[in-house]
């Protein structure tokens, strides 16, 4: 039995010197010290020995067990440390390595255009106000002097939500909201989405953007309108830009005009962009109709004002040479990335 014990010890030593992993070490532990392990078997068989033999064999078995346990313990520590070191090596992070590139988006061309327009107006002391996209028929039409028979009110032109609410067809309704809320002096612009029952084509979209402007104060005249908008055009399209005002009609302004700018492509000689005329129509404007001022309870003897409205898509298309309005809404990155 003692010879057996020696053999177990020598075998265990030999095997433990070879193993490299936790699992292999555990295997040896089970084989020797486990419930059915070699040493356990021997200890179990000791009952059959004479008391004399039992004593010496027992002592020796305990010594062998202690030695093997010690060897196992240090082997476990060794393989665990080796495993950890291997893992560290595998998971090592080189913090000096350049990171994966982050894809930073670009601003949408309509956003770029709107921000350019805001900047010009803000530099002239305008502030920005906003109104809801679902508007009352009252604010979108009646209060803007477009009575019940105005053609724009037709079901075929406008998206109605109910009999009294609709998707606003213009940002001009924010004029009404501002006049009701604010006392003069008023000097605001209002950007936002508008909706009309149009079939999409290269120049029409049922959803589009406008920027409205409104100035109300004592002594505001057509000269203020022209001076402001001429300065706006020069800042947006370049200092050499000239402007002209053509008489027009809008229900909420009197007199009304449309402003053309000299073609920024050809300088006015006539080209494809200006369709040979040398001029490009940019916005509608006029002196605020007294009926509109009255809606806001404003004293029309004391105050006058001017207003303007422009289509953002139109300005962006002209500025960047975009030939189809639908490109703005398709979210094709090949299109949008060009505005980096
Ligand atoms: N709301 C007009 C439209 O959608 C644009 C417009 C014209 C706005 C003249 C104005 C203005 O404020 O004075 O066609």
- Which structural class is indicated by helix and strand composition? alpha+beta
Low-confidence stretches: none
| N/C terminus separation | 87 Å
| Widest β-sheet, arrangement of strands | 1-4-5-9-8-7-6
Question: Strand portion, in percent?
Answer: 15-25%
Assembly form of the protein: single chain
DSSP strand count? 9
Tell me about this structure.
This protein has 340 residues and is of the alpha+beta class. It has helices spanning 2-18, 22-33, 38-45, 51-90, 109-123, 137-140, 173-181, 222-237, 290-295, 312-320, 333-336, and strands at 127-128, 134-136, 165-167, 186-195, 207-218, 243-250, 253-262, 279-288, 303-311. The longest helix is centred in the N-terminal third of the chain and has 40 residues, at 51-90. The model has no long low-confidence stretch (mean pLDDT 93). The chain binds 3,4-dihydroxyphenylalanine. The site of 3,4-dihydroxyphenylalanine has 11 residues, from strand 8 and strand 9. 3,4-dihydroxyphenylalanine is lined by residues 170, 172, 212, 250, 253, 284-286, 307-309.
């Amino acid at each position: 039995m003692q010879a057996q014990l020696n053999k177990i010890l020598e075998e265990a030593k030999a095997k433990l010197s070879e193993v490299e992993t936790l699992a292999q070490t555990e295997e040896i532990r089970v084989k020797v010290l486990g419930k059915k392990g070699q040493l356990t078997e021997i200890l179990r068989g000791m009952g059959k020995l004479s008391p004399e033999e039992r004593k010496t064999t027992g002592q020796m078995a305990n010594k062998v067990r202690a030695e093997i346990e010690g060897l196992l313990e240090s082997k476990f520590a060794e393989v665990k440390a080796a495993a950890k070191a291997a893992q560290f090596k595998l998971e090592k992070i080189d913090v000096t390595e350049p990171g994966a590139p982050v894809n930073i988006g670009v601003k949408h061309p309509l956003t770029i255009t709107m921000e350019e327009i805001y900047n010009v107006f803000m530099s002239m002391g305008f502030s920005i106000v906003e109104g809801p996209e679902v508007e009352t028929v009252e604010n979108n039409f009646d209060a803007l002097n477009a009575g019940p028979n105005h053609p724009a009110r037709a079901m075929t032109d406008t998206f109605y939500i109910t009999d009294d609410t609709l998707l606003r067809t213009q940002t001009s309704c924010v004029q009404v909201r501002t006049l009701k809320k604010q006392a003069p002096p008023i000097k605001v612009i209002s950007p936002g989405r508008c909706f009309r029952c149009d079939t999409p084509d290269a120049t029409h979209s049922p959803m589009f953007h406008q920027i409205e402007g409104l100035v109300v104060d004592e002594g505001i005249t057509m000269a203020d309108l022209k001076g402001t908008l001429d300065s706006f055009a020069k800042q947006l399209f370049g200092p050499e830009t000239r402007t002209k005002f053509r008489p027009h009609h809008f229900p909420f302004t009197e007199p009304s005009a449309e402003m053309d700018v000299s073609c920024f492509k050809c300088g006015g000689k006539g080209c494809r962009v200006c369709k040979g005329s040398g001029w490009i129509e940019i916005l509608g404007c006029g002196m605020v109709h007294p009926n509109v001022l009255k809606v806001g309870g404003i004293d029309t003897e004391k105050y006058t004002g001017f207003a303007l409205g422009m289509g953002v898509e139109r300005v962006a298309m002209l500025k960047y040479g975009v030939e189809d309005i639908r490109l703005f809404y398709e979210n094709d990155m090949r299109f949008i990335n060009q505005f980096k």
